[in-house]
From TrEMBL:
<dbReference type="InterPro" id="IPR036116">
    <property type="entry name" value="FN3_sf"/>
</dbReference>
<keyword id="KW-0121">Carboxypeptidase</keyword>
<keyword id="KW-0378">Hydrolase</keyword>
<feature type="region of interest" description="Disordered">
    <location>
        <begin position="902"/>
        <end position="959"/>
    </location>
</feature>
<dbReference type="GO" id="GO:0009252">
    <property type="term" value="P:peptidoglycan biosynthetic process"/>
</dbReference>
<keyword id="KW-0511">Multifunctional enzyme</keyword>
<keyword id="KW-0328">Glycosyltransferase</keyword>
<dbReference type="GO" id="GO:0008658">
    <property type="term" value="F:penicillin binding"/>
</dbReference>
<dbReference type="GO" id="GO:0071555">
    <property type="term" value="P:cell wall organization"/>
</dbReference>
<dbReference type="InterPro" id="IPR001460">
    <property type="entry name" value="PCN-bd_Tpept"/>
</dbReference>
<dbReference type="GO" id="GO:0008360">
    <property type="term" value="P:regulation of cell shape"/>
</dbReference>
<keyword id="KW-0472">Membrane</keyword>
<dbReference type="InterPro" id="IPR050396">
    <property type="entry name" value="Glycosyltr_51/Transpeptidase"/>
</dbReference>
<feature type="compositionally biased region" description="Basic and acidic residues">
    <location>
        <begin position="796"/>
        <end position="809"/>
    </location>
</feature>
<dbReference type="GO" id="GO:0008955">
    <property type="term" value="F:peptidoglycan glycosyltransferase activity"/>
</dbReference>
<dbReference type="InterPro" id="IPR036950">
    <property type="entry name" value="PBP_transglycosylase"/>
</dbReference>
<dbReference type="GO" id="GO:0030288">
    <property type="term" value="C:outer membrane-bounded periplasmic space"/>
</dbReference>
Length: 1041
């Protein structure tokens, strides 16, 4: 094979040798003509000398020469989506802009030729006479007062050779100039020269190369627009750009002298008339100089750096695809090298990069980011590095990262990389941070909806759950308030961003499956270890994720479940205007339209009445918005990601070096989001038209279900008041009827709830409708061992059906009497205390009271034998008390001693026996038969009046009022009577009563605030106790003034 290669290349080598000999002979003739080498120097010596000077210079073919002289470092530019200029890309040399000879002012062309090479169109690359004169001056040690380089030679010096001063370099210069003249036209050579020459610095102080960059940088105009005065001054700068710069006073004066010389030569060579000469020389060019402009890398540094990086990556990816190479099989280092190579091309080849950035949107975002009043104060704090060493971080900014994306196309419209590039160069829109609760819709709820595992009305139990932990054995995740909320709807769980329901939904889907959905929505930062992170749904990921990717993922919901990868680079053109890259959008359907709408509708609730209501301070209610807050443990990272039907925007706020954010700054992400969106809507109504709404797709229906099981309501569901209505994907409307509710008698023993034995007295049990827990609850001992700061039971624990019967067994005989009975009065309250009876089968105690009007009457029952106190809130005048113990079968002990309060010396007598103490509301001997006994206490030590416990659902709440707060509607009502034992109030909402009401939320107080997205919202309230839900209150409607 090598023999064939040698023989095939031999003719080329011979041809090159002949070319070299021919050029050398021409050069010998020139030098020989000098006659200055002396008679002693024979022709052979001259020939050998010249040949030695150029022997190492390659004989380049046309393609090689073209690559050298026509491929220069050209300035590239970046543009907004309307075609307006963002700024020029960084160039290694400075500003250089390619121009055709036809687009250059004839004045400038004539000035250059007259000054630099008046015989340009006559010679063959070298000016013999000028070369002889320069050589003679050098050899005779005379001052060299005239150069011998033609325009062609100058081009060789600037593009092929170095600026070394030597005979060898001069010989190589002549050698290459002759070659170039043989292969290219005069116009091509002149054009290359005009694009190559260095012309000093522009008004910003940047280096400028080529006549187009010089015209823009010195006079602020296109080179074809230069006047004779401007062209002659610029031509004069070629010889010494620094000495003749028009931006300095002294250099300008020197430049004017040089301009005069240029005009002299132009007139000598017939290019201009005397009149033109005089006019041009008289112009004060100082007044026509370009003004300094703000450079893009100083004005929008995050943007320019991002354009460089993304343009390079797009070119690499396109090239790999064209070559059929799979990007995933390329090593990280190789890919990085390819990107760097393309980045160099972008910065030096004169590319035009057209982006998706909207100038108005981007300016609005920068304005909000630069306003310090939108953020908290700078902080100084100490962090601990991974090596154990501490480091003090001083005067740290609250940083921000944000990105806005067009939902349908994926075009990135604007970005905030940070607050001050000079302080911190990290682009926080693309740097990974932990997403906190903002991950919940992506990793838990959307996959669960898509798989039919949950719907908005599906119940989730916010109760303790133990997660396995390889290092600690188990881990007990918690909510921010260290409390549990009990069973709630999926909508409510997301509305208030409770952690435990999200974790349970995440585990229900299965972590690997959930994360596959997350990846499909564009999250690329996940690693294998995340498949084992059971708290990944609340932000416990290995590396976190970026603002861009979170925003892009949320846009999937706004885009009807279709993921469109976000992009910044629309197209790239080379220096000749050829499109070398053009973005192609490729949507991928990740979720059904129904799933996307359900998630969107739930996140509407977040914005209108949940954790995201702060948005409504800035964005009017008529604008349809869905979104989610996000907070990590210790509040190191704060998020808000939201969207309208047209655009999505994500905002992250935190310190560059992670550190807890102050509570006072928890709304900062929503402030940034709200202010940006408000201004964008005003400046760009088309991006979020006021009447644009998320369109409900086919297959979305309304249905009522049991709120505890998620199944169709049973009669017991309705009787208990556990029916809610919401929207569903028609495919996943339940078909089974609820079977979780059951009527039962329940008793409390040692802090646990049990099914009461058949003989247990009614006043020691709670009888009503209960429901089974979705999952068994960990014991309180396990919970406290995992985290002593959290509550051990959810608030709806007493409504749940126990799964075991009372474990106590009956002990023969009556229980012993309680001892140490004492009564103390403060005001109208008497606090009673005693010591426990000893029997293991005790179910509790009965308390009796007597006063001046009647004898002892049963006034209260303590249902837990471990509770040894009771407060009588209606203690008046002289009163006496005693207490008895009661066992499993209802056998009552003898009375304790009598304890009295008051000032009289009344002698109080005990009844004959415990059987004389009726507990059904009757009287004991010695009382007035016409007087009713005081009611029975529901809860000891509450300070509430001692009322009879209700065994019916409560009455409807009364006195419901509504008031406009400016940010929403505040509802208030009067609390139900204590005897009704109300445990919660349900708030129902409807934008239109004719279409029905939806359960908005459940509270334990008598107030509720709702940021409704409609002008005239309608509400009613119901009360709930262990026996059911009340009728609804009167309807109230909010009306704006």
């Amino acid at each position: 094979m090598s023999n064939n290669q040698t023989s095939s290349s031999e003719p080329k080598k011979k041809k090159r040798r002949r070319g070299r000999r021919r050029l050398v002979w021409i050069m010998v003739q020139l030098i020989f003509l000098l006659g200055l080498m002396g008679a002693a120097m024979a022709g052979g010596i001259v020939t050998g000398y010249v040949a030695a000077l150029v022997k190492d210079e390659p004989v380049r073919n046309k393609a090689e020469l073209e690559e050298k002289i026509f491929t220069n470092y050209l300035t590239g530019f970046a543009y907004y989506n309307d075609g307006s200029l963002i700024g020029q890309l960084r160039a290694e040399e400075g500003d250089r802009r390619l121009v055709k000879k036809a687009d250059v002012s004839p004045y400038l062309i004539n000035a250059i030729i007259a000054t630099e090479d008046k015989g340009y169109y006559q010679h063959k690359g070298i000016a013999v006479q000028s070369t002889l004169r320069a050589t003679y001056q050098e050899l005779t040690n005379q001052p060299v007062v005239t150069g011998g380089s033609t325009i062609t030679q100058q081009l060789v010096k600037n593009t092929i050779l170095t600026h070394e001063v030597s005979h060898a370099r001069k010989a190589r210069e002549i050698f290459n100039a002759l070659r170039i003249e043989q292969m290219f036209s005069k116009d091509e050579i002149l054009e290359a020269y005009m694009n190559e020459i260095y012309l000093g610095k522009n008004a910003n102080g940047s280096n400028i190369y080529g006549v187009q960059a010089a015209a823009k940088g010195v006079f602020g105009k296109e080179v074809k627009e230069l006047t004779l005065s401007e062209a002659s001054y610029m031509a004069g700068m070629i010889q010494n750009p620094g000495a003749y710069s028009p931006f300095g006073n002294e250099s300008y004066e020197r430049g004017k002298e040089r301009q005069k010389m240029v005009l002299d030569r132009m007139m000598e060579n017939g290019y201009i008339t005397q009149s033109q000469y005089d006019t041009a020389l008289a112009v004060d060019l100082k007044a026509q100089l370009a003004k300094p402009t703000q450079q893009a890398y100083r004005e929008v540094p995050f943007l320019m750096m991002e354009i460089e990086e993304r343009a390079a990556r797009q070119l690499v990816d396109a090239e790999l695809k064209e070559k059929g190479r799979d990007k995933s099989t390329i090593g990280r280092n190789e890919y990085r090298l390819l990107v760097e190579e393309k980045r160099r091309d972008i910065l030096r080849r004169g590319y035009k990069v057209y982006t998706t950035f909207d100038k108005n949107v981007h300016n609005i975002m920068q304005s909000v980011a630069s306003d310090a009043s939108n953020f908290g104060k700078n902080r100084t704090y100490t962090i601990k590095r991974s090596n154990g060493k501490t480091e003090k971080i001083e005067d740290a900014l609250e940083e921000v990262g944000a990105m806005m994306i067009h939902n349908r196309t994926g075009a990135i419209l604007g970005m905030i990389g940070g607050r001050d590039f000079t302080v911190e160069q990290t682009n926080h829109a693309t740097a990974p941070r932990q997403p906190g609760s903002a991950m919940k819709p992506l990793a838990a709820y959307a996959p669960a909806f898509e798989l039919g595992l949950l719907q908005p009305a599906s119940p989730l139990d916010d109760s303790p759950v133990l997660l396995s932990d390889g290092q600690k054995g188990s881990h007990l995740p918690k909510n921010w308030n260290n409390k549990w909320q009990g069973i709630m709807s999926t909508r409510e769980a997301l509305r208030q961003s409770w952690n435990i329901p999200a974790i349970k939904a995440y585990l229900k889907v299965g972590i690997p499956t959930a994360l596959e959905y997350v990846k499909k929505t564009g999250i690329t930062t996940l690693v294998d270890a995340d498949n084992y992170a059971q708290t990944g749904v609340i932000g416990g990921l290995t590396y976190g994720t970026t603002v861009e990717e979170m925003t892009n993922a949320y846009a999937t919901f706004a885009n009807n479940g279709s993921f469109v990868d976000a992009y910044l680079i629309e197209r790239i053109e080379d220096s000749r205007g050829q499109v070398i890259y053009h973005h192609q959008t490729q949507p991928v359907q990740v979720y059904s339209e129904q799933t996307a709408y359900l998630i969107t509708d739930m996140m509407r609730t977040v914005v209108n009445s949940g954790t995201g209501t702060h948005i409504r301070k800035f964005v009017p209610r008529k604008v349809d918005v869905a979104g989610k807050t996000g907070t990590t443990n210790s509040s190191n990272d704060l998020w808000f990601v939201g969207y309208t039907p047209e655009v999505s925007m994500g905002v992250w706020v935190g310190f560059d070096e992670p550190y807890p954010m102050p509570d006072a700054d928890k709304y900062v992400p929503m402030i940034v989001w709200g202010k940006v969106m408000k201004e964008v809507i005003e400046a760009h109504p088309n991006l979020s038209p006021p009447d644009a709404t998320f369109k409900k797709p086919e297959g979305i229906v309304s249905a009522s279900v049991d709120s505890k099981s998620g199944k169709l309501p049973s009669e017991l569901s309705k009787e208990a008041g556990h029916v809610i209505s919401d929207i569903f994907n028609r495919k996943f409307v339940p078909s089974e009827v609820d079977d979780s509710h059951q009527k039962a008698r329940v008793i409390t023993y040692e802090g646990e709830r049990y099914l009461a034995k058949e003989g247990t007295p009614d006043d020691f049990v709670t009888e009503g409708i209960f429901y089974r827990s979705p999952d068994p609850l960990p014991t309180k001992e396990i919970i406290q061992a995992s985290n002593s700061k959290v509550a051990v039971r959810p608030p709806d624990w007493e409504q749940r059906l126990p799964d075991a019967e009372d474990p106590r067994t009956e002990v023969a005989g009556a229980p012993s009497s309680p001892t140490g009975f004492v009564a103390n009065r403060t005001g109208t309250q008497a606090v009673l205390t005693w010591q426990s009876a000893k029997e293991p089968d005790l179910v509790g105690y009965r308390i009796y009271r007597a006063n001046a009007l009647h004898g002892f009457t049963h006034i209260g029952t303590v249902k837990d034998p471990a509770v040894l106190t009771l407060t009588d809130a209606n203690s008046q005048g002289d009163s006496a008390y005693y207490v008895t113990a009661v066992d499993l079968t209802g056998v009552e002990s003898q009375p304790s001693i009598i304890a009295s309060v008051g000032s009289s010396s009344t002698t109080w007598e005990l009844p004959q026996s415990p059987t004389d103490n009726p507990i059904d509301g009757g009287t004991v001997p010695g009382t007035d038969p016409g007087e009713l006994p005081d009611p029975i206490l529901g809860q000891p030590n509450t300070g509430n009046p001692i009322d009879s416990p209700s065994t019916l659902p409560p009455s409807a709440p009364q006195s419901v009022t509504i008031a406009d707060t400016g940010n929403g509607w505040k509802l208030q009502w009067r609390a139900n009577k204590a005897s009704e034992q109300v445990i919660a109030y349900n708030v129902y909402f409807s934008p239109d009563p004719s279409s029905g009401y939806l359960l908005l939320g459940t509270v334990s107080t008598t107030t509720f605030t709702h940021a409704a997205g409609v002008d005239n919202p309608n509400y009613y309230i119901t009360a709930v106790n262990s026996y059911g839900e009340s009728p609804h209150s009167n309807n109230v409607t909010g009306r704006l003034p």
